[in-house]
Design a protein that fits this description.
By secondary structure, this protein is mainly α. It is 70% helix and 3% strand. The chain folds into two domains: 247 residues, no CATH class; 51 residues. Strand 1 and strand 2 form a beta hairpin.
Length: 318
């Protein structure tokens, strides 16, 4: 299995597109860092020494708004309650709002580029099987005394490893560039998490690692879908097209359906964002963390079952 994975990596590393994608990710991180640095120098935000007093005024205003909300949507009420709870916790524990933009702020902003890493992973996943048929190398691969199942497993593991490499590059370079451009925080400020009406503190670095991990779930599931289409239809263009379309629109379309229909909770994109159970509210009332994990497992099994069934049954000579 190790040699199969090693062979897949050699194929990926021989492609010029791999270095182009990696270079684009690095460029985007540096470009965003430069833009943020320019904006901070231009605006030069000043520290508010009376932040407690300012925050107390904001809390009182929010409480007044909460009393007058009446039949406001549940999401609006809960967002206001969260805002009040977080600010009161900051006041009571003397945790000032972030005044100086520092490395962790930039790393958090960099999590938005996980979609870009996901795009590159989808491209690799979409071509890792179909390209063998396109180039005619699938026959040479299958004449070896190795089962088709092992070959497909090695290819999927390679896809997952590639996605991890992209995430590591994103997180590591964002951290390094954040330290260089923005420095480290003057004081160790924890991340405040609000869940079930309670505010808890979490180490900022740990929070960001969890954030990147949670946000990568959607990327992995779409890469798995692209892998399935690649194995089943031998068409990388179809796999890339469908997966990229869903990458950028799946969540929004599911959100619109969730406003009207309860069955939207069974759609893949209603369950890929597990952060909704730790920070905020689920997309559809009644959804739970265990429900989303089960739904993700079901979709994963369906994608892999189709990929393995078709790949094992396919007549290579056809």
């Amino acid at each position: 299995m190790f040699k199969l994975i090693q062979n897949e990596w050699l194929k990926i590393l021989k492609r010029p597109g791999t270095y182009v994608m990696t270079g684009l990710l690095v460029f985007m991180i540096m470009f965003v860092g430069g833009i943020v640095k320019y904006q901070l120098v231009k605006e030069n935000p000043q520290e508010d020494k009376n932040w407690k007093q300012t925050m107390r005024v904001e809390v009182n205003q929010a409480k007044l708004e909460l009393k007058n909300m009446g039949h406001a949507p549940k999401q609006v009420v809960e967002a206001t309650q969260k805002n009040i709870a977080l600010k009161e916790y900051q006041i009571n524990h003397s945790i000032p709002p972030t005044q100086k933009y520092a490395v962790w702020d930039f790393v958090s902003s960099g999590s938005g580029m996980i979609q870009l890493a996901g795009l590159f992973t989808i491209i690799i996943a979409a071509g890792i099987v179909s390209s063998e048929f396109t180039w005619g190398t699938i026959k040479f691969l299958l004449i070896r005394p190795i089962s088709r199942g092992k070959i497909l497993v090695s290819k999927y593991i390679t896809v997952i490893m590639f996605s991890i490499v992209m995430l590591v590059i994103l997180f590591s370079l964002s951290s390094l560039l954040g330290v260089i451009l923005f420095g480290t925080p003057e004081t160790s400020v924890p991340y405040l998490n609000y869940l079930n009406g309670k505010v808890t503190e979490q180490n900022m670095a740990l929070h960001l690692i969890i954030l990147y991990g949670m946000k990568s779930i959607g990327m992995i599931m779409l890469a798995t879908m692209a892998f399935m289409i690649s194995a089943a239809f031998r068409n990388s263009s179809l796999a890339i097209g469908i997966s990229i379309f869903l990458l950028f629109t799946g969540g929004e379309l599911t959100g619109l359906l969730a406003l009207k229909f309860n069955w939207a909770k069974y759609i893949l994109f209603a369950n890929t964002d597990l952060m909704q159970y730790f920070e905020g509210e689920p997309m559809v009332d009644g959804m739970t963390l265990s429900f989303s994990v089960i739904m993700l497992a079901v979709y994963f099994i369906i994608f892999q079952s189709i990929a393995f069934y078709v790949f094992k049954k396919r007549d290579v000579a056809a």
